[in-house]
Design brief:
The chain is of the alpha/beta class and 392 residues long. It is built from ten helices and 22 strands. It folds into two domains: 157 residues, Glucose Oxidase, domain 1 (3-Layer(bba) Sandwich), CATH 3.50.30.20; 223 residues, Rossmann fold, CATH 3.40.50.880. Strands 12, 13, 14, 15, 16, 17, 18, 19, 20, 21 and 22 form an eleven-stranded mixed sheet that branches. A seven-stranded mixed beta barrel has the order 2-3-10-7-5-4-11. The chain has a two-stranded antiparallel sheet with strand order 1-9. The radius of gyration is 21 Å and the shape is globular.
Length: 392
């Protein structure tokens, strides 16, 4: 597909809660959008970023200057729609030129009602966010761009902060969805996936390891999980503050009490931390992008990984510690090398582990994809143990 996209000179403005104003051009839908302004450092994969449910409630700024040249296609979306609250780019492509493209990025933004802005100095805005931290903001275009500056700032400052928000119900499926194990692989059993904002690439990676993947609504009960006779439980990525997800923590504690193998990624890592008895806290500006270095303490290998999180687990980086909630010994398994943030947890006395980043990593890199194999091996070892003990 090669075509020239619509290009506008309609005015728009980005307003941050510190009072700064960044005028630009309307991009995508017209109107007003409010949310937490964050930046993503990925050089590629904007379609996967836009359709990642973890970005619900956030206005995403792309640090890569040129966005949209490959358009949007029907094969790569990570979920059923675009989830970002708003979109900030410097130079949107005037031309879509890719054989896989089905529509332009700006057309997709209009279709899903995403208010964006282009033609702003994204580098300068990123420097503000890195210094002051992520903050609330608003994009105003169309008639909203004509509102008085004082009114726009008032709307921004009255918007809810990300801290304290539980957004899981907004992004989760309403009813269970099942993806069978991939053809040609040995079937392991049913996997209960709590959908807190799961990505399609995660589901496909789990199915490729032999799991029949049952994606369950975020309000499922322990009885609902037991009903599918799972061999393991998985908690997905997702938006919001882990401190506001007490029900999901209680559910996870019930899972751990039953000794079911568990793997969590991103939001799931934070909820495992809380279930084990650790706290969580908000990072100044978070980790978002596909170029974050992480140390796997078990192998000593440094991986380049994909991240999207604004909260982190508060746990000792070195040594083994006892779970405050009585689940035995726990260690931090992965550490972010940019700022020494906890990037993974491993329980040593129960079959549970988690990472703060994305091993499915659409659109890359794939350094951490082995974690799905590690989970498969854990489940196989756990499910075969009773048979082995009975044979002694």
């Amino acid at each position: 597909m090669t075509r020239t996209t619509s290009f506008t000179t309609d005015p728009a403005v980005l307003v941050l809660e510190d009072g700064s104003r960044h005028p630009g051009r309307a991009y995508g839908a017209r109107g007003t959008t409010l949310g937490e302004v964050v930046f993503s450092t990925g050089m590629t994969g904007y379609q996967e970023t836009l359709t990642d449910p973890s970005y619900a409630g956030q206005i995403v700024l792309q640090t890569a200057p040129h966005i949209g040249n490959t358009g949007m296609n029907d094969e790569d979306p990570e979920s059923r729609r675009i989830w970002v609250a708003g979109y900030i780019v410097r130079d949107p492509s005037r031309v879509v030129s890719n054989w896989r493209a089905d529509e332009s990025l700006d057309d997709a933004l209009v279709r899903d009602g995403i208010v964006g802005i282009s033609g702003v100095d994204t580098r300068a805005i990123t420097r503000v966010l890195r210094s002051a931290g992520s903050m609330r903001g608003g994009v105003f275009s169309g008639e909203a761009a004509e509102l008085a500056a004082e009114e726009q700032l008032r709307l921004v400052r009255e918007a809810p902060e990300m801290s304290g928000q539980n957004l899981s119900a907004e992004v989760s499926v309403a009813a269970a969805q099942v993806t069978p194990a991939a053809d040609g692989v040995e079937r392991i059993g049913n996997l209960a996936v709590l959908d807190l904002g799961v990505k399609q690439a995660t589901i496909l990676n789990l199915a490729a390891r032999g799991f029949e993947v049952h994606v369950l609504p975020q309000d499922v009960t322990i009885e609902g999980i037991r009903a599918i006779d799972p061999v393991a439980v998985f908690y997905s990525n997702g938006p919001g503050d882990p401190a506001a997800s007490g029900d999901h923590v209680a559910l996870l504690r019930a899972v751990l009490d039953e000794k079911l193998p568990f793997f969590g990624i991103c939001f799931g890592n934070q909820l495992l931390g809380r279930a084990l008895g650790f706290g969580t806290y908000k990072l100044p500006f978070g980790h978002r992008g596909i170029n974050q270095p992480v140390l796997d303490k078990q192998t000593g290998r440094v991986e380049i990984t994909a991240h999207n999180h604004g909260f982190a687990v508060d746990a000792p980086l070195e040594g083994e510690v006892d779970s405050p909630n009585g689940y035995g010994r726990v260690e931090v398994s992965h550490i972010g090398l940019n700022d020494n943030v906890v990037e993974g947890l491993r329980a040593l006395d129960i079959p549970a582990f988690s990472v703060q980043y994305h091993p499915e990593a659409a659109a890359g890199p794939h350094d951490a994809n082995y974690l799905f194999d590690r989970f498969r091996d854990l489940v196989v070892a756990h499910t075969s143990r009773p048979t082995m003990e009975a044979s002694k």
